[in-house]
Structures are given as structure tokens and as C-alpha cells.
Amino acid sequence: MNKNIMITHLEEEDIDGRISLLYEFHVQQNLNHLSMTVDKSKLKDFYSDAVIEQQDNKRYYVIKTKSQKIIGYCWISDIDWINQSCELSISILPKYRIGFGFLAMVEMYNYLYNQLNMKSVINQILEGNNLLLKSAPKNALKRRMDSFTFGEYRASYLWNQTKEQYLELKRTKKEKLINLKSKFQSV
Question: Which residue intervals of 35-96 are DSSP H helices?
């Protein structure tokens, strides 16, 4: 578990806070949300239904700092329990974008592969999220006009990552860190 963030299931008592954030200008500026086309009561019904009735195919989570400040949300959708796969989406509030999205992604990978026993995760990153786009493989599928934000379409990039690929990435990063530490110790 990461010491800087905590990810919990979205519960009914979290829904009003989620809806309020969706109506904030800076959040709407970044993504195309239901809040741009649906009134608050229907949005509340949508999330209540998701929390109560749709856990089998879509789950929402709240991302908080260790001081309990909400910094974003993430969700898994298109859950295929038989083939053990799902799609992961992460939305970090604009003022927390530097670094927290990556931490949330790593935390969710650990949860999806180790707790939910997923074998593969479909990742989606919107154009303009340059820091996380660096983690996308060169062969990521580009889905044009995926999101409509303030009169402009944005593309998204999708790729599949298996548990084995994730473990290999972790191992490689750990080796690089060990090599880097040994270089510093020899100086």
C-alpha cells in the first residue's frame, strides 16, 4: 500500500461530493462528464445505481491523500470475471495532477492483479496527459474523438497490460533503482 494515497470504494455517502466535483469548472474543462448533459438528480440516481446494483460490471473508487483530502476518482469498467480482465480509468483533480495519477495507477494495478485476480488490464489515457502517456507503449491504439471537452475532441490511447507484463516492469524498475543506488554509493 502506498503511504501517500488511499483508494477506497465509492459509497453512497461519497456521491454528493463526487457530483459537486463534476460540476467544477476545472474538472469539466478537462473531461466530458455526464454532469455536462444530465441534471444533478439523475446523476445521483446514476451513481446510486452504480454503487448498489452494478458492482459486477463497473466499480467506482475515491482517491484520497493520507490526510483524507479527495484528489480524484478511478473506476474499473467492462469487468469480465470469466476472462479476468477490465478497463481502468483514473481522473485526478487538476491541482493534484503531478505525480498522484501515477501513484493511483500503481495502487490500482496492485489491487486489480493481486486482490481481484485480474489477468489483464486495459489502460486508457486521454491526449494531453503527457506524463502518463510516456508509460503507454508505442503500439497503443489511438481512439480519435474519444472525449468532447469545451468544443474540442480529444483522442485517447488504449493498450492491454497483462499481469506478467506488469510484474516484468516492476522487476526492471527495481533493478534500475538498485543500479542507480549503487552508482550513488560509489561516488
Answer: 40-53
Q: Which residues contact 60 (CB under 8 A, 6 or more apart)?
A: 9, 10, 18, 47, 50, 51, 73, 74, 75
CATH code assigned at 92: 3.40.630.30
Domain, as residue range, for 129:
5-185
Least Cα distance to 21 among 5, 2, 43, 45 occurs for 43
CA distance 87 to 2: 22
- The H or E element spanning position 4 is none
Residue in the block written with cell 534500475 = 176
pTM for this predicted structure: 0.79
| Residue 85, pLDDT score | 96
46-87: pLDDT as tens digits: 888 888 888 888 999 999 988 999 988 889 999 999 999 999
Segment 102-123 shows an average pLDDT of 92
How many domains does the chain fold into? 1
Phi, psi of 11 (to 5 degrees): -110, 170
Enter the C-alpha cell of residue 151: 468544443
